[in-house]
Every structure is written in structure tokens, then in C-alpha cells.
Amino acid sequence: MIVVINMSPLADYDRSDGAAMCKRRFEKLTGWPVAAVHYTEASPEYVARLHPRALFITGFGQAWETFHVPDLYPVNDLLHTTEVPVYGACGGHQLIGYCFNRDLRKVKRLRNEPMRKLRPGEPDMGPVSGQWGYYVARGVQEVEIVKRDPIFAGLRRKIIRVPESHYCEVKQLPPDFELLATSPECRIEMFRHRDRPLYGAQFHAEVWDGPYTDGEIIMRNFFRIAGLCPA
Question: Which CATH superfamily is domain 2-225 in?
């Protein structure tokens, strides 16, 4: 089974198009069933009862300031203890950064970490999470692979093209993580833990479409690492 950890607000849980899209795509890609779990329930004990072979953490559209930090303790504990392959996308990637760059139990409030403010003459694409005046990465972007990894198998080009939709980023590479990919506007586009199959990507590999299939290859490789796709 694949478990999708839904990072949407609890009030929007049943209306989360992103989690539903992941369920459809992942089941078609792997042939394995997918179950969705809200992040407030994603404790190591609860998730273990589902016997997952892979974990995927979604993105979301809310500001980090709106999260009640203790609600993140279950998924924080899961990330620090699980041996199951994990992939976090966009906000899920940022969550991994927060969980490994600091002790969440000593943090009262998380804050957005925008990439940068707009330069003179740049169009304002906001507001994002209620904030204007910040650079927003939207649409298909070019990302550079800086360290080869099984997640990139079959991608012979150094530059990949993947969808993005964010204005925040992970500012600091967490200890024991390796940088896998970067871009001019976002230094930490993708990372993985040195000792575990724990990946985070700022881009949306799970939203491949049309001629832009690099994301599909990345997701297929991740599920292959988890033993859910044939070699």
C-alpha cells in the first residue's frame, strides 16, 4: 500500500483535489492501492498499522503561520523513525526541512520562508498565502541535477523540466541530507537523507502533463525504490 499524507487543513480534507489526484495517478502508475491520511493522524503507530510500502506527503496552499505546531508532532515523529521510503512534495518538502532543521517541540510557531522579494519591474503574481510582493515560481521550470541518485534513473540530461507552484523554500539543507537538485531562484530544489530513502522536492513531480514527463520518471523511480514498480 501507498499512504498519501494530506497536508490540507482538516476543514478541507474531504475536498482536497491534490490528494485525490495523487491517489488516481499513483494507483495507475504502480497498480497498488493508495490510502490518504491527514497529517494530524500520521503518527508512527497509526501509519504502521496500514503496512505501507511508500509514503508521499502532499503540498498545500496555506501559510505556515496557520499551522498549530503540536498538530505536526505525529508526522514529525514518523519522519524521524520510519524506514519506509518517503517523498515530500512542495510543502511536504518544506515540512521535512522544518522537521530536520529544528526540534519542533521547542518551536511555538512556524513562519513562511519566501524565496525573495520582487525585483523592480517584475510582475506581482500574488497574493500567495495572503502576501504580496514576493517572487512566485509557477509553471514548468528548469531544475538542475547536481548529484546523481537512483531517483533520477533514465534522466540523462542534467536539466529537467518540472511543474512548480511556490514562493517559500527550504533555506538550509538539513544535517545528514544531500542536495540533489537546484535552480537559479531556489537553491534547495531536491534533497535526500544520506542513510534513508527520504526525499523532498520543491517541485511537483507528481503533476506531470503533456510533453513534460520528467516528473513521471521521478515518481516511477521513487516507487521502484520502494519495490512497487518493476525494474
Answer: Class I glutamine amidotransferase (GATase) domain (3.40.50.880)
Residue type, 176: D
The answer to whether residues 191 and 180 touch, using CB atoms and an 8 Å cutoff, is yes
Would you say residue 121 has pLDDT above 90? yes
Return the number of other C-beta atoms located less than 10 Å from residue 167's C-beta.
23
User: Which residues on neighbouring strands pair with residue 57, listed in sequence order?
Assistant: 5, 88
Where do the DSSP E strands lie in 1-128?
2-6, 34-38, 54-57, 86-89
Is 90 designated active site?
A: yes
Judge whether 206 and 219 are in contact, CB under 8 Å. Answer: yes
User: What does pTM read for this prediction?
Assistant: 0.95
For CA atoms 89, 17, 79, 115, give the dihedral sign: positive
Q: How confident is the model at residue 17 (pLDDT cuts 50, 70, 90)?
A: low
Boundaries of every domain in the chain = 2-225
Out of 22, 90, 168, 186, the active site residue is 90
134-184: per-residue pLDDT in tens?
A: 999 999 999 999 999 999 999 999 999 999 999 999 999 999 999 999 999
Catalytic entry in 164, 169, 189, 206: 206
In tens, the pLDDT along 43-81 reads 999 999 999 999 999 999 889 999 999 999 999 999 999
Cα–Cα distance measured from residue 77 to residue 88, given in angstroms and rounded to the nearest whole number? 15
